[in-house]
Amino acid sequence: MRYSLIVSLGAQKDILESIEWYNNEKANLGFEFYESLMEKINSLAERPLLYTKRFKNVRTEKVNKYPYLIYFKIEESNSSISILGVLHTSRNPQLIRKRK
Q1: What number of other Cβ atoms are within 10 A of residue 10's Cβ?
Q2: Closest CA to 59 of 36, 82, 89
Q3: What is the pLDDT of residues 34-76, one digit of tens each?
Q4: Distance in angstroms (rounded) separating the CA atoms of residues 32 and 59
Q5: What's the pTM?
């Protein structure tokens, strides 16, 4: 069963900032990051229970080739996944707790 995806405003901001940063480092690198991110998000929608619980109801998965974690929670009641954030691995994961 495929879960529907809900991307929070905080996660949208994280994604846009990351794309901008990578594009400033090298032309089109931000778009490559976005492609890797979306591949991983789409795989989350297929099998969200496979991924590691980081704390309480929040799970994480690493973006392939990039040092970023996708923070998400599963809403079984409506078969959806809420993407709470996409943070660089050096950032404090406690930021996500404030977004719940």
Answers
A1: 18
A2: 82
A3: 999 999 999 999 999 898 898 889 999 999 999 999 999 999 8
A4: 24
A5: 0.92
In whole angstroms, give the CA distance from residue 59 to residue 4: 16
Q: What is the arrangement of strands in the sheet containing 68-75, beginning at the earlier edge strand? A: 4-7, 80-88, 68-75, 58-62, 52-55
In single-letter form, the type of residue at position 59 comes to R
Say how far apart CA 11 and CA 58 lie, in whole Å. 14
Instruction: Give one word for 55, left, alpha or beta, with left for phi > 0 and alpha for psi -120 to 50.
Output: beta
Instruction: Encode 14-26: b = buried (16+ Cβ within 10 Å), e = exposed.
Output: bbeebbeebbeee
What are the beta bridge partners of residue 60? 52, 71
Can you read off the two tokens belonging to residue 17?
């900032």
